[in-house]
Design a protein that fits this description.
By secondary structure, the protein is α/β, with parallel strands linked by helices. The chain is 37% helix and 18% strand. It starts with a strand and ends with a helix. It binds beta-D-ribofuranose and calcium ion (CA).
Length: 312
């Protein structure tokens, strides 16, 4: 029997975060030790509430959820209600959750867990504030982190919150810089990949047709989430960002990538939060990240739909 991969999901739901959490909880290869919540798409009280709703939708009240940082490390929070709606999870009507938040702060949970447990993969789906704060307070935890597989950044696709920056990195570039300079193995699922993972009508209808509770909920989540990006990009479907992180863990053969240097801009007003990805290896800066460039979108949606089908 192969051992399950131990992961901690750090998240700011967000409809696409919600689908990523569902995919992880539907995947027997993964041992989700806990979920840590951060402010991002909407303020922390809402991202925490949304995480509780999603874990309950998955029928997994055993998964501990920890609320973390309410503000980026050294700047005010920027949110994205224009994309995700006022609640951050507009779309389906989900019941008030019974599951409670854990009392411990997410940063304390990360430090305590990573001091005791080796070989843990971190899966950040939002701004990197919780992860960077833990690394700054307890640098020794890096030893027990197997890999950080994150959604963030963009190079060939440019940015989505500014012309130069992707949202997760832009919200807390200081935190992103700490993570990218940490020496921990990092894999990045940037906009370059997620803009190939489009929820076109046939894919959303496949979710809606599932005979369980989770399938139609995913269809309603993606229906709402799509409206902003479809208009912005003039495409038939909108990108489904965060589930690519979990899919990468489940089947890396769906992706193409290159190990390169990635540096985060932390100073310039014009390009704050840009991820300068040395794809062509023209600098002699050290390679610090695996930058994922392409995805087999049909294979990704097939995997996602099959797994969502196994949920309640
Ligand atoms: C990222 O920002 C958020 O809006 C999404 O949840 C995703 O994590 C995409 O730029
Ligand atoms: Ca997110």
């Amino acid at each position: 029997m192969t051992t399950k991969r131990k992961i901690i999901i750090d998240t700011d739901p967000g409809q696409d975060d919600a689908v990523a959490i569902l995919l992880a909880l539907a995947s027997p290869e993964l041992d989700v030790l806990g979920i840590t919540v951060v402010a991002g798409n909407v303020p922390l009280p809402l991202t925490a509430l949304n995480t509780r709703k999603i874990v309950e939708l998955a029928g997994r009240p055993d998964i501990p959820i920890y609320a973390g940082c309410a503000e980026p490390m050294d700047r005010p929070l920027v949110t994205a209600e224009h994309v995700h709606g006022r609640t951050g999870l507009d779309g389906p009507t989900l019941p008030d959750p019974q599951i409670e938040l854990q009392a411990e702060h997410a940063v304390d949970y990360l430090i305590d867990t990573l001091r005791e447990t080796s070989g843990v993969t971190l899966c950040p789906l939002g701004p990197l504030t919780n992860i960077a704060t833990a690394l700054r307070r307890a640098p020794e935890i890096a030893e027990n982190i197997r890999e950080i597989v994150l959604m963030g950044g963009g190079y060939f696709e440019g940015g989505n919150i500014t012309p130069a920056a992707e949202f997760n990195i832009y919200v807390d570039p200081t935190a992103a810089d700490i993570v990218f300079q940490s020496g921990i193995p990092i894999t990045v699922l940037p906009l370059d990949v997620t803009h190939q993972a489009l929820v076109i009508p046939s894919r959303v209808e496949a979710f809606r047709a599932l005979p369980n509770r989770a399938g139609p909920a995913v269809a309603e989540l993606t229906d709402f989430f799509e409206r902003y990006d479809k208009e912005k990009y003039g495409s038939e479907g909108a990108p489904l960002h965060d589930p690519t992180v979990i899919a990468y863990l489940l089947d890396p053969t769906l992706f193409e990538s290159r190990h390169i240097n990635v540096t985060v801009e932390t100073q310039s007003d014009l390009t704050l939060g840009a991820t300068v990805a040395d794809w062509w290896r023209v600098s002699d800066r050290p390679r610090n990240a695996t930058w994922v460039r392409n995805i087999n979108a049909d294979g990704f949606f097939k995997l996602l739909t099959e797994r969502i089908a196994t949920l309640p």
